[in-house]
Write a structure and sequence with these properties.
Helix content is about 40%, strand content about 10%. The protein is mainly alpha-helical and about 260 residues long. It has one domain: Orthogonal Bundle (Transferase(Phosphotransferase), domain 1). Strand 1 and strand 2 form a beta hairpin. The mean pLDDT is about 95.
């Protein structure tokens, strides 16, 4: 997986955001994988620790959304389905100020990533299957059962896009996503803060939840670029002004 990501040669290097196995110990009845230690714990841990305060920080939520989109986009370009994308499987490495630029490639380039995606125990290497292969299996956790699983339709990359939507939902609202269907459109039950870019956030959820078929997977890169343009034009100054406070808050919560 690391080699495939390297071959992509994208301006944004997500390899540091994807679990790398330093050592592995394998036995007949168990195994142990040694990887990078992240003192802040999982993304879910951090959201729970921040409590209500994180809901008012669109700059941080949008930044992490863009980072997640880069991650998923490049994994899928390598024909890898993670299969279990959720806040529990994202460790928080930490935050740094970003370059002050109107060019998203300048802002997000480099190899410093705030999150680390772990647990590839459910992942699928699509390169090992014939073209056109789809799946009908269902995950056991209902909160992360994609629309296709819920409606008994075939799926491939949809499961990760649903997991992406669910993770973004936790960042926005501090709780797991619930969906419902209205006039053939799948929606979330929560309403986006009116101070946020409601139109863009609605588009994100609509795109990730309403996927026509396995042959018509949405262009995540186009959606990600729209998010980047909004971030650099409207949120980047606030991010750089406030991020040191976020870092101090995160460190103080971790030390408790």
């Amino acid at each position: 997986m690391q080699k495939r990501l390297q071959r992509l040669q994208r301006p944004v290097d997500v390899r540091p955001a994807v679990m790398f196995i330093d050592k592995g110990y394998f036995y007949t009845d168990a195994s142990c994988l040694v990887t990078e230690y992240c003192k802040h714990g999982s993304l879910l841990d951090v959201v729970n620790k921040f409590g209500e305060t994180n809901k008012s920080q669109e700059f941080l939520t949008m930044y992490l959304t863009i980072e997640l989109m880069h991650m998923v986009e490049q994994l899928h370009a390598c024909r890898i389905i993670h299969g279990d994308l959720k806040p529990d499987n994202l460790l928080v490495k930490g935050f740094t100020p970003l370059p002050d630029s109107s060019d998203p490639e300048v802002v997000f380039r480099g190899n410093k990533r705030p999150l680390l995606l772990i647990d590839f125990g459910q992942s699928i290497d699509m390169s090992q299957y014939p073209a056109g292969t789809t799946f009908m299996a269902k995950v056991k956790t209902s909160s992360f059962m994609c629309i296709e699983m819920q409606t008994n339709r075939p799926w491939t990359y949809q499961t990760d896009l649903f997991g992406l939507a669910g993770t973004i939902h936790v960042l926005l609202f501090g709780q797991y996503m619930k969906v419902y269907q209205e006039k053939e459109e799948w929606k979330i039950t929560q309403s986006v803060n009116r101070k946020f870019n409601q139109q863009l956030w609605r588009k994100i959820f609509y795109t990730l939840l309403n996927i026509p078929s396995c042959e018509k997977i949405p262009d995540l890169s186009a959606l990600r670029r729209e998010c980047e343009e909004y971030f650099v034009s409207a949120l980047l100054p606030t991010y750089n002004k406030q991020i040191n406070k976020v870092i101090c808050k995160l460190d103080s919560l971790t030390s408790k």
